[in-house]
Amino acid sequence: MPKNISSLEEFDIMREITMPHLLTMGESLLEKKNACYAILARKTEEILLVNSPGFSTDFIFAGLSEKHIEFIAKNAPIEYKKELLKLSSSDYSVADILEIAQAMDNDLGENVTQNQQRVKNVMRYIQDNQIAFQF
User: Fold this and answer.
1) CA dihedral defined by 40, 37, 22, 27, rounded to 10 degrees?
2) HSE, side-chain direction, 13 A CA sphere, residue 2
3) Alpha-carbon Rg of the chain, whole angstroms?
4) CA distance 58 to 21
5) Cβ–Cβ contacts within 10 Å for residue 65, how many?
6) N or C: which end of the chain has fewer CB within 10 A?
7) pLDDT tens digit string along 42-91?
């Protein structure tokens, strides 16, 4: 039996889906990791539900998978792609992204690098397919 939700609950759900970058009130690493896990758990086609400014944040980027970035390259509006390209080109942003990925790996155990490798693969994909992210 379906449960009715209030307008406020519906708004909260929509905000979480489309504006996850606004859910982190502070800049704590824990909040960023939690946002990353939420992005990483999304189905490929759900990644475009995040609005364009979300793709300019380090923790949204750090939560992308290789499948997400392929889908974005093929299907996202140019604004989304340009934000990701700009973020992946900034040394400062890349350092923050890798710090988040390393913290995610630390959650998994000592000497684990799967999230760092995933993020590097996403960055490599953007670099190798740069033309798709420019036009």
Assistant:
1) -130
2) 3
3) 15
4) 9
5) 18
6) N
7) 999 989 888 778 888 899 999 999 999 999 999 999 999 999 999 999 99
